[in-house]
């Protein structure tokens, strides 16, 4: 298990090849490509231009001796009826396929997606939402088998007074088991679990061998802060020891941009080095 970081520690004003170089200089050998940050730009270019962009990023990773072991895929919105960026379900599906093919160029084994409610309305049936998500994510199996790229479905959190299904590990496990494919697994977001009041040991244990990716972030149990370990109230010994006990084979992947991206650029590299050293301490617990 390596300490990894999302490239979203740099805003879009820093090119992704340069972001790769700076993360590598801080010590990281594993990285997460945040496709979500660029989905607006991707929608404005051709698939051929996207392929060239991905190859440029991959060349930088190869040159600096790092691997992309995760990617955050595009995000449709808070639910499947309230889509962002003027997306339709059809155009979002096209974006999903593009992202999976970009992941293949980058050498990414697991792309993270958000399973969500369908309407976002109070009283929506869990079974209806489960059935919709099974049908939706099952569509990608031919592309997964063609590219060898897997998808990891992430635990989210309830929205205000409305249940957000799959925020509980039991629900996420049921979705993955119903899909029943070796290239479909889970991503555990520690911060989302904490906000949902899910014990980390319990959540990770329930997912067990389904767990293929992580989003490591801390918070106070109320806000979705995306900060480094020990800046919030998560018990990190529980997280790490449970990951080891279940035989988790992925990386300890930071999604802690608010601890790094908000720093002045002149000190950001030192912040990255601190984050890397801190992560190695945490995974030694």
Automatic annotation (TrEMBL):
GO terms for molecular function: isomerase activity. Pfam families: AP_endonuc_2. Residues 20-268 form the Xylose isomerase-like TIM barrel domain. It comes from the Bacteria. Keywords: Isomerase. InterPro entries: IolE/XylAMocC-like, Xyl_isomerase-like_sf, Xyl_isomerase-like_TIM-brl. PANTHER family: HYDROXYPYRUVATE ISOMERASE (PTHR12110). This is Sugar phosphate isomerase/epimerase. It comes from Paenibacillus hemerocallicola.
